[in-house]
C-alpha cells in the first residue's frame, strides 16, 4: 500500500509552542517524571479561576444555547463588543462590524483565508506569536518578518518594516501587548505603524488579546483609534487571558476603517463564518457579562497581584543569572530572556530547551519557535506562583551553570 502523507500545504507550517518539545515532555511524563510546563499561557493549571459572575451567566443561558447561533455571533455578545470599543473612542463601531469566533486563533485563520491569494506577503513581527506565521503560510501567503528592537523595549523597528515592503505586500500584523516579549508599544510606535500602512495601502491585523494585562504605567493604544476611517483595521481580542477562560474559546474580531472598500473581502469572511456554522454558543454568553461587569483583572495586574508579582519576580531573577539578560515585560504573561550563546556554547536553541527539559524537567519554548532570527532567546510563562517560579528559575540557572564556559 502507498504511504498516506500529510498535505504539502503543511510543508512550511510550524507551531513549536506545542511542537516536538512538548512531545518529549509527554514522553517523560509517561515515564513518571513531573514536568513544570512553562510553554503555554494557560492560566487554569496554575490556580486561576474564571470570575463567578461569568460562570453563573453562562450556566443560566445553557438551556438556550443548544442550537446554532447566527454565524457572526449572538446579538448580545456582538453588541457588548461594539459598545466596548465605542467606550474607547471608536464611536462608529456597530454590531455589524463584529464577528465572534472560537477564540482569536480561529478568527486569525478564518480572516487570512478570506484575505490572501497565493504569493501575497504579510508583514509579521519577529518575534511573533507563531500562529500568525503558520496561518499565513497555510492560506497560501508569505510571512515576511520585521524586527522588533530589544534595545528599544522590543518596539517594532519602523525602518526595517519599510525596507521589507514590496509590490506583493498586502497586510501588516501588529501584536500589542506582545507575545512573547511582553512589550507594550508606545503611542508613537502605534502611530508610526499605522502611518506605514496608510502610505502603502496595507490592511492592519491588530492582535490585542493582552490589552488588559498591563503593568506599572503602561498604556495600551488601540491601533484602530489611529487607523481612523482611511485604513482598514481588524482588531482581534477575547476573554481567554484577562478573564481566565481559555477553554471557553470566546474571541472576536472588530472591523474598522473604510469598510465600503472592503465589501468583497468581508463577504468572504462572512462566507467562511457561515461554513463553520457558528462559534461555541455557551462561551458567547460569557462576553456581555465579562465586558460589562466588574473587571477582576485589576486585582492581578497591580502591585500585590499575582500577574504583577510573578512577572516582576521572573524578570528580576532571570537578570541575576550570569550570561542572561531580560527586557522588562510591561504586559502579557511572559518573559523573553536573551542568552549569551558564546558563554553557554549554544548553537541550536531547540536543542538547548530539550536538554533543559531532560535535565531539569522544565518545559519552555525556544526563541526561534517565535520566528526570532538568532538562537539566543527562550520564552518563559510567568503564570506559576512566586515560589514555584523562583524554584524553576533556580533550576534554569543551575542548568546554565553546567554549560558556562
Beta-strand content: 5-15%
Instruction: Give the total of beta strands.
Output: 15
Structural class: alpha/beta
Helical run tally: 15
How are the strands of the largest sheet arranged? 2-9-8-7-6-3-4-5
Low-confidence stretches: none
Sheet having the most strands? 8 strands, mixed
The level of helicity is 25-40%
The average pLDDT value, as a whole number, equals 93
Measured distance between first and last alpha carbons: 52 Å
Radius of gyration: 21 Å
Shape: globular
The sequence of SSEs as H and E is HEHHEHEHEEHEHEHEEHHHHEEEHHEEEH
Notes on the structure:
The protein is of the alpha/beta class and 405 residues long. Helix content is 39%, strand content 15%. It has 15 helices and 15 strands. The chain has helices at 20-30, 52-61, 75-86, 103-115, 130-138, 158-163, 187-200, 223-227, 263-275, 281-292, 298-301, 306-319, 341-344, 349-360, 386-403; strands spanning 36-37, 98-101, 121-126, 142-149, 155-156, 169-175, 203-207, 233-238, 251-256, 324-325, 334-335, 338-339, 362-363, 365-366, 378-381. The strands form 4 sheets. Strands 2-9-8-7-6-3-4-5 form an 8-stranded mixed beta sheet. Strands 11-15-14 form a 3-stranded antiparallel beta sheet.
